[in-house]
Amino acid sequence: MLTIEKIIHAQQVLKAATYKTDVIRASKLCNGCELWLKAENLQKTGSFKVRGAYYKISQLSEEEKRKGVIACSAGNHAQGVALAATNNGIKSLICLPAGAPISKVEATRAYGAQLCLVEGVYDDAYARALQLRDEHGYTFIHPFDDEDVIAGQGTIGLEIAEQIPDVDVVVVPIGGGGLIAGVAFALKATRPNVQVYGVQAEGAPSMKSALDRGEIGALSSVSTIADGIAVKRPGNLTYELCRKYVDGVVTVTDDETAAAILALLEKEKVVSEGAGAVPLAAMLAGKIPNTDGKKVCCLVSGGNIDVTILNRVITRGLIMQGRQCTLNIELLDKPGQLVEVSRIIADCGANVTGVHHEHAHAGSAVIGCFLRIDMETKNFEHIEIIKNRLTQAGFRIA
């Protein structure tokens, strides 16, 4: 059984292998509460996962170590297992979904693991890993449904209790549930009055669905930019621990997650992957109850976001905040029209970043044309002001 003594033992084991990550006061992100960030994105391998993987591997027998270990992961657990195994002189084989971010795949390889890419999502990689385990006698390192792994993740709860002794609410991402199971167990054992809330992606609500139904089931599919928590089925052990120790689970959309990634990057200079940003996304969307006037800690679980995805996420976040806008304007193809449009936009204080001009299509005036303007704006109210000024000048917004 999972015990607080096991988590304390894990903390002792991990002292020489992992960082005690900082908590950061994030005064610019939320009004109405005192918000803190637990920066596991600055952990070794860029994610909390190394804690559970390292502790699990430290507890293996010599025979198990000799045979080697196998794991499956969307990326972060893979890196944790690879690092822990390599540092202990153990062979590791990692099964990853073929669609895992390239940066995570290459990082796992760099930590010394052999890789097996599997078509599908995490659950497909999981099935393949179990098959290879049975064929070759490897020890399987489960990413979340294992007491030692959960104990390793639970050391984060002990650190939060030490670093913010009077914390009221802790908000944690949920994929398979290993992180929140360990954190909630550790916090409830040391700070019984702390409320622990979990956050899942709206497109992958496996734990929330299980808790709502009162039984574990598997989702038919998952779809989210938060690839680290894209899990079809939660663990049996993590489900029971969440049912006992977690105060509630909410979901966030991909757009809300994108906005949170942008807010962390822009306002706090914190780089987060999608899974790491969902706690803040829930806070910004007002989905975590009873936080007014409270000390709230959001666990930023990882920072391993692919650069190409980050670029798209930032763009999406800007659009969601009304800070990037595209207008299609119908006007007459005659001298002075473009100058007038540009003057109005400049007078309103927006910045034009792109212009595309094309002649009219069937159904519009013979001498008509369309102008697509890409702009940097302040917010949605600013966009409406620009639209109204253009309309008042006789231009039609298509």
What report would you give on this structure?
- The protein has 398 residues and is α/β, with parallel strands linked by helices.
- The protein is 44% helix and 20% strand.
- The chain contains 15 helices and 14 strands.
- A 6-stranded mixed sheet has the order 1-2-10-7-8-9, with helices on both faces. A 4-stranded parallel sheet has the order 5-4-3-6, with helices on both faces. A 4-stranded antiparallel sheet has the order 12-13-11-14.
- The longest helix is centred in the middle third of the chain and has 17 residues, at 147-163.
- The protein is elongated and about 80 Å long.
- The N and C termini lie far apart (64 Å).
Map the helices and strands.
Elements: H1 4-14, E1 23-25, E2 34-39, H2 49-58, H3 62-67, E3 69-72, H4 76-87, E4 92-97, H5 102-110, E5 114-118, H6 122-136, E6 139-140, H7 147-163, E7 169-173, H8 178-190, E8 195-201, H9 206-213, H10 236-245, E9 248-252, H11 254-268, H12 274-284, E10 295-300, H13 307-320, E11 324-332, H14 337-347, E12 351-359, E13 368-376, H15 380-392, E14 396-397
Parallel strand pairs: 2-10, 3-4, 3-6, 4-5, 7-8, 7-10, 8-9
Antiparallel strand pairs: 1-2, 11-13, 11-14, 12-13
Helix pairs in contact: 1-7, 2-4, 2-7, 4-5, 7-8, 8-10, 11-12, 11-13
Which characteristics define this entry?
398 residues, 4-stranded parallel β-sheet, elongated
Brief summary:
This protein has 398 residues and is an alpha/beta fold. It is built from 15 helices and 14 strands.
